[in-house]
UniProtKB/TrEMBL annotation:
PROSITE patterns: THAUMATIN_2. The keyword Endoplasmic reticulum does not apply. Disulfide bonds join 19-223, 64-74, 79-85, 129-211, 134-194, 142-157, 161-170, 171-181. InterPro entries: Osmotin/thaumatin-like_sf (IPR037176), Thaumatin (IPR001938). It holds the Pfam family Thaumatin. Keywords: Disulfide bond. Belongs to the thaumatin family. This is Thaumatin-like protein. Signal peptide: none annotated. It comes from Daucus carota subsp. sativus (Carrot).
Amino acid sequence: MTGIDISECARVFTLINDCKETIWPAITPGENFGNGGFALKPTESRVFQAPIGWSGRIWGRTGCNFNKDGQGMCQTGRCGTSLHCTASGETPATLAEFTLATPDFYDVSLVDGFNLPMSIKPMNGQGNCSRAGCDGDLRPNCPKELAVKAGGRTIACRSACDVFNTDQYCCRGNYGNAATCTPTFYSKKFKAVCPASYSYAYDDPSSIFTCGGSTTDYVITYCSGR
């Protein structure tokens, strides 16, 4: 026994919905986060704890309709037909990625596309602890060849890799390293709107953040720029 209370080393996550509509956050692995999914109405927030060693993804689903048994569908970000996610969601989706360690690593990734503005704000940490994410909304300015539409409006923006499936856009084959996989027309457009986000596979230096200290907590806000 070390005499250290594990709760003292846990990270507190607060998820806030600043969007105008209900969203359905999804988390994998989600044992500590509402079993991986729940509804979050405008202005609502939920608080969870995750232990050191947790490594996972948090995203938002939109346009969902679930029955009393937690079964249904979403327009974006769905993980099959379940309210509670146990696997990665469908692309495109804005992803918050975490590895809780010493220090913590975190980023907001647009590598799999964009469906919602989302930010990560560390609290009470030590070191750099910069704010990550995207306050801007890519949907109104999404290139038409990447746009996902419903009801005449763009509801998400796919990645160039997802649409064109080439080695250059997917950073594989001859493009599978940082020297050859460089920013493209599309990743530059993503980066211009979301400079503190991960826009393509080798965007590491400016887009992965660290935060030290045993008292760090995180606030994740959807539609944070509204």
